[in-house]
Write a structure and sequence with these properties.
Layout lengths: L5 E5 L6 H14 L7 E5 L5 H8 L5 E4 L16 H7 L3 E4 L2 H6 L4 H13 L3 E6 L3 H5 L3 H12 L5 H4 L3 E4 L13 H18 L2 H6 L1 E5 L7 H5 L6 E4 L6 H10 L3
Parallel strand pairs: 1-2, 1-8, 2-3, 3-4, 4-5, 5-6, 6-7, 7-8
Helix pairs in contact: 1-2, 7-9
The protein binds 1,3-dihydroxyacetonephosphate.
Amino acid sequence: MKRIPIIAANWKMQLTEAESKHLATFLKENYQPSADLEVLLFPSFLHIASVRDIIAGSGIYLGGQNLSFAEKGAYTGEVAAFQLADIGCTHVLVGHSERRHYFHEDYETVNQKVKAAISSHLKVVLCIGESADERKAGVTEMVIVDQLESAFSGIDHDKLASMVIAYEPIWAIGTGKPPKPEDAAHVHQIVRKTIRRLYAPEIADNIRILYGGSIDAKNIKAFMAQEEVDGVLVGGASLDAKKFLQCLKNWKD
Ligand code: 13P
């Protein structure tokens, strides 16, 4: 089966509502949907409904940047999986390094969030990646394998098919210094090998693995050209409507 590539935009905590609406409107008006690419936006929770209304019928997918580990109830300030699904999200980011770092999300929490997302039929985009120190210490593979094994603990084979993995080396996020595309692809191979071991060859062959960290309109093509790279998760360059549209146009010849 051919893996349809994904270009996803993580708007993080960067935009006003007017800015989110402007970006969504610009994409809706200027991006021609195509069967060989999936486009996915992760706005702030606050702007999901506005963005949803603008991109309706455009073929662009919508996701939450985070979700609660809990299913429902008295969890002040949290947003549950069912609420994201209810408002029109099809996807959710889980385990972004900013959440692991600033909000102390440990392996168990990430695993609980994966389970919560699955229970509301959201497609998980699981973020993994090593820090600069871990890379220097030569333990990237160990870190990646630990992150995958813990996140997928207790998750059945049939649930893996809808998952997406985003390899985001922490040292490459927001630094303008991505790895060489072939070095990212090497880590993607480790991810796929791990999925093969934990699950089955056909699951590993079909799962999409994105790269994230300092992707822009200039380097996107070199990453997407790697056999092992099934798409990208874009931060900074997705905040500028023209730059992100360039990414959507430049990813292949
Ligand atoms: P940048 O593209 O700004 O490096 O951010 C990447 C990222 O964290 C996407 O989730």
